[in-house]
Amino acid sequence: MADAWADYDQYKTDSALSERYYAFVTACFEQGIRAVVGSRRVPAALDVACGSGDSTAVLANYAERVEGIDLSAALIDKARARPQLKAVEFHHGDFLAHPLGGRYDLITSAWFHNFVHSEADQQRVLRKLAAALSESGAVVFLFPSDSFTSPRTGRYVARLTWRQAWYERTPRYTRGVFSFRDSPWQIMTCWQPLYLLELYSALFDLQFLDTKKLCVEGGFLDEQYLSPPFEVMYGRKRAG
Prior knowledge:
Helix content is about 30%, strand content about 30%. The protein is α/β, with parallel strands linked by helices.
Protein backbone atom coordinates (compact mmCIF):
# COMPACT_ATOMS: atom_id res chain seq x y z
CA MET A 1 0.00 0.00 0.00
CA ALA A 2 1.31 3.47 -0.91
CA ASP A 3 2.35 5.73 1.94
CA ALA A 4 -0.17 8.60 1.91
CA TRP A 5 2.31 10.83 3.75
CA ALA A 6 5.28 10.24 1.43
CA ASP A 7 5.13 13.74 -0.12
CA TYR A 8 4.07 15.69 2.95
CA ASP A 9 7.51 17.27 3.39
CA GLN A 10 7.37 18.56 -0.18
CA TYR A 11 3.78 19.74 0.26
CA LYS A 12 4.93 22.07 3.05
CA THR A 13 7.12 23.96 0.56
CA ASP A 14 4.77 23.88 -2.45
CA SER A 15 4.22 27.64 -2.38
CA ALA A 16 5.18 30.80 -0.54
CA LEU A 17 1.86 30.57 1.30
CA SER A 18 2.62 27.01 2.47
CA GLU A 19 6.11 27.98 3.59
CA ARG A 20 4.74 30.97 5.52
CA TYR A 21 2.08 28.88 7.24
CA TYR A 22 4.49 26.15 8.31
CA ALA A 23 7.05 28.73 9.42
CA PHE A 24 4.38 29.99 11.81
CA VAL A 25 3.70 26.44 13.00
CA THR A 26 7.43 25.98 13.66
CA ALA A 27 7.72 29.30 15.48
CA CYS A 28 4.85 28.41 17.81
CA PHE A 29 6.18 24.89 18.37
CA GLU A 30 9.58 26.28 19.37
CA GLN A 31 8.01 28.89 21.62
CA GLY A 32 6.21 26.08 23.43
CA ILE A 33 9.53 24.30 23.98
CA ARG A 34 11.16 27.46 25.25
CA ALA A 35 8.26 27.96 27.65
CA VAL A 36 9.14 24.72 29.48
CA VAL A 37 12.94 24.49 29.14
CA GLY A 38 14.09 28.07 28.48
CA SER A 39 17.36 28.14 26.55
CA ARG A 40 18.92 25.13 28.30
CA ARG A 41 19.36 21.63 26.86
CA VAL A 42 17.64 18.72 28.60
CA PRO A 43 19.36 15.30 28.71
CA ALA A 44 16.83 13.33 26.61
CA ALA A 45 13.81 14.16 24.43
CA LEU A 46 11.29 12.33 22.24
CA ASP A 47 9.44 13.74 19.24
CA VAL A 48 6.17 11.88 18.59
CA ALA A 49 4.81 12.07 15.01
CA CYS A 50 8.16 13.49 13.92
CA GLY A 51 7.49 13.14 10.19
CA SER A 52 10.50 14.01 8.03
CA GLY A 53 12.19 15.67 10.98
CA ASP A 54 11.21 19.35 10.78
CA SER A 55 9.97 19.43 14.37
CA THR A 56 12.83 17.15 15.44
CA ALA A 57 15.37 19.64 14.08
CA VAL A 58 13.89 22.29 16.37
CA LEU A 59 13.80 19.92 19.33
CA ALA A 60 17.45 18.93 18.78
CA ASN A 61 18.49 22.46 19.78
CA TYR A 62 17.11 21.81 23.28
CA ALA A 63 18.22 18.24 24.05
CA GLU A 64 21.47 16.31 24.28
CA ARG A 65 19.86 13.07 23.04
CA VAL A 66 16.81 12.99 20.76
CA GLU A 67 14.58 10.24 19.42
CA GLY A 68 11.75 10.52 16.91
CA ILE A 69 8.89 8.19 15.99
CA ASP A 70 6.38 8.26 13.13
CA LEU A 71 3.95 5.92 11.36
CA SER A 72 5.16 6.92 7.89
CA ALA A 73 8.09 4.80 6.72
CA ALA A 74 8.74 7.21 3.84
CA LEU A 75 9.01 10.23 6.13
CA ILE A 76 11.21 8.35 8.61
CA ASP A 77 13.56 7.47 5.76
CA LYS A 78 13.73 11.15 4.81
CA ALA A 79 14.38 12.16 8.41
CA ARG A 80 17.23 9.64 8.68
CA ALA A 81 18.76 11.02 5.49
CA ARG A 82 19.03 14.59 6.82
CA PRO A 83 22.69 15.29 7.68
CA GLN A 84 21.83 17.64 10.54
CA LEU A 85 19.80 14.87 12.20
CA LYS A 86 22.38 12.07 11.94
CA ALA A 87 22.66 11.93 15.76
CA VAL A 88 18.90 11.43 16.19
CA GLU A 89 17.55 7.90 16.67
CA PHE A 90 14.44 7.53 14.51
CA HIS A 91 11.82 4.79 14.85
CA HIS A 92 9.14 3.72 12.37
CA GLY A 93 6.04 2.67 14.27
CA ASP A 94 2.88 3.42 16.20
CA PHE A 95 3.60 5.36 19.39
CA LEU A 96 1.08 3.32 21.37
CA ALA A 97 2.56 -0.01 20.23
CA HIS A 98 6.25 0.83 20.00
CA PRO A 99 8.46 0.04 23.03
CA LEU A 100 10.24 3.18 24.18
CA GLY A 101 13.94 3.14 24.92
CA GLY A 102 14.01 4.85 28.30
CA ARG A 103 12.86 7.92 30.20
CA TYR A 104 12.71 11.38 28.69
CA ASP A 105 12.89 14.88 30.13
CA LEU A 106 10.84 16.36 27.31
CA ILE A 107 8.28 14.83 24.93
CA THR A 108 6.86 16.83 22.03
CA SER A 109 4.24 16.13 19.40
CA ALA A 110 2.89 18.17 16.49
CA TRP A 111 -0.30 17.06 14.69
CA PHE A 112 -0.43 13.79 16.63
CA HIS A 113 -3.50 13.98 18.90
CA ASN A 114 -5.79 14.51 15.90
CA PHE A 115 -4.85 11.00 14.70
CA VAL A 116 -5.87 9.41 17.98
CA HIS A 117 -9.48 8.58 17.22
CA SER A 118 -11.00 7.29 20.46
CA GLU A 119 -11.22 8.50 24.04
CA ALA A 120 -9.83 5.15 25.22
CA ASP A 121 -6.72 5.66 23.07
CA GLN A 122 -6.35 9.24 24.31
CA GLN A 123 -6.27 7.79 27.82
CA ARG A 124 -3.64 5.27 26.72
CA VAL A 125 -1.52 8.04 25.17
CA LEU A 126 -1.79 10.04 28.38
CA ARG A 127 -0.63 7.14 30.53
CA LYS A 128 2.21 6.18 28.18
CA LEU A 129 3.48 9.76 28.01
CA ALA A 130 3.46 10.09 31.78
CA ALA A 131 5.22 6.75 32.24
CA ALA A 132 7.92 7.70 29.72
CA LEU A 133 8.72 11.03 31.36
CA SER A 134 11.22 11.61 34.13
CA GLU A 135 9.94 13.20 37.31
CA SER A 136 8.82 16.77 36.52
CA GLY A 137 9.41 16.05 32.82
CA ALA A 138 7.77 18.39 30.32
CA VAL A 139 5.48 18.05 27.31
CA VAL A 140 4.66 20.28 24.33
CA PHE A 141 1.65 19.39 22.15
CA LEU A 142 0.54 21.13 18.95
CA PHE A 143 -2.93 20.14 17.68
CA PRO A 144 -5.95 21.63 15.85
CA SER A 145 -7.79 24.51 17.49
CA ASP A 146 -11.52 25.23 17.52
CA SER A 147 -11.13 27.24 14.30
CA PHE A 148 -9.54 24.36 12.37
CA THR A 149 -12.92 22.96 11.33
CA SER A 150 -14.51 26.33 10.51
CA PRO A 151 -15.59 27.30 6.99
CA ARG A 152 -13.11 30.22 7.04
CA THR A 153 -10.23 27.86 7.72
CA GLY A 154 -11.51 25.50 5.04
CA ARG A 155 -11.38 28.29 2.47
CA TYR A 156 -7.90 29.30 3.61
CA VAL A 157 -6.36 25.82 3.52
CA ALA A 158 -7.91 25.19 0.11
CA ARG A 159 -5.35 27.73 -1.11
CA LEU A 160 -2.72 25.31 0.23
CA THR A 161 -4.27 22.46 -1.82
CA TRP A 162 -5.61 20.97 1.41
CA ARG A 163 -9.18 19.66 1.29
CA GLN A 164 -11.28 18.75 4.31
CA ALA A 165 -14.88 17.73 5.05
CA TRP A 166 -16.46 17.14 8.44
CA TYR A 167 -19.16 14.54 9.05
CA GLU A 168 -19.45 14.12 12.84
CA ARG A 169 -19.62 16.80 15.54
CA THR A 170 -19.86 16.05 19.26
CA PRO A 171 -19.09 18.16 22.35
CA ARG A 172 -15.63 16.53 22.57
CA TYR A 173 -14.52 16.30 18.94
CA THR A 174 -15.22 16.99 15.29
CA ARG A 175 -14.39 14.15 12.92
CA GLY A 176 -13.90 14.25 9.18
CA VAL A 177 -11.63 13.49 6.26
CA PHE A 178 -8.84 15.41 4.56
CA SER A 179 -6.51 15.21 1.59
CA PHE A 180 -3.47 17.21 0.48
CA ARG A 181 -1.85 17.29 -2.94
CA ASP A 182 -4.62 14.88 -4.08
CA SER A 183 -3.43 12.27 -1.56
CA PRO A 184 -5.86 9.51 -0.50
CA TRP A 185 -8.54 10.74 1.90
CA GLN A 186 -7.68 10.10 5.55
CA ILE A 187 -9.62 10.43 8.81
CA MET A 188 -8.89 13.22 11.27
CA THR A 189 -10.40 13.70 14.73
CA CYS A 190 -10.09 17.27 15.99
CA TRP A 191 -10.51 17.07 19.76
CA GLN A 192 -11.94 20.07 21.55
CA PRO A 193 -8.88 21.77 23.10
CA LEU A 194 -10.56 22.23 26.47
CA TYR A 195 -11.39 18.53 26.54
CA LEU A 196 -7.72 17.66 25.96
CA LEU A 197 -6.73 20.14 28.67
CA GLU A 198 -9.21 18.55 31.09
CA LEU A 199 -8.06 15.03 30.23
CA TYR A 200 -4.31 15.66 30.38
CA SER A 201 -4.53 17.84 33.48
CA ALA A 202 -5.05 14.64 35.47
CA LEU A 203 -1.31 13.97 35.16
CA PHE A 204 0.14 17.27 33.87
CA ASP A 205 0.08 20.92 34.91
CA LEU A 206 -0.71 22.56 31.56
CA GLN A 207 -1.42 25.85 29.85
CA PHE A 208 -1.98 27.19 26.33
CA LEU A 209 0.43 29.33 24.35
CA ASP A 210 -0.98 32.63 23.08
CA THR A 211 -0.75 31.77 19.38
CA LYS A 212 -2.81 34.81 18.37
CA LYS A 213 -0.24 37.15 19.94
CA LEU A 214 2.61 35.30 18.26
CA CYS A 215 0.79 35.50 14.93
CA VAL A 216 0.69 39.29 15.14
CA GLU A 217 4.06 39.90 16.79
CA GLY A 218 5.88 37.46 14.47
CA GLY A 219 4.50 39.05 11.32
CA PHE A 220 2.47 35.98 10.33
CA LEU A 221 -0.91 37.72 10.20
CA ASP A 222 -2.81 36.90 7.03
CA GLU A 223 -4.84 39.49 5.15
CA GLN A 224 -7.94 37.49 6.10
CA TYR A 225 -7.20 37.89 9.83
CA LEU A 226 -7.67 34.16 10.28
CA SER A 227 -7.31 32.91 13.85
CA PRO A 228 -4.48 30.35 14.17
CA PRO A 229 -6.01 26.95 13.36
CA PHE A 230 -3.92 25.18 15.98
CA GLU A 231 -3.16 25.30 19.70
CA VAL A 232 0.07 24.72 21.57
CA MET A 233 -0.38 23.18 25.00
CA TYR A 234 2.62 22.78 27.29
CA GLY A 235 3.53 21.99 30.89
CA ARG A 236 5.09 19.56 33.32
CA LYS A 237 4.25 16.20 34.78
CA ARG A 238 2.58 16.46 38.16
CA ALA A 239 4.57 15.26 41.16
CA GLY A 240 3.75 11.70 42.21
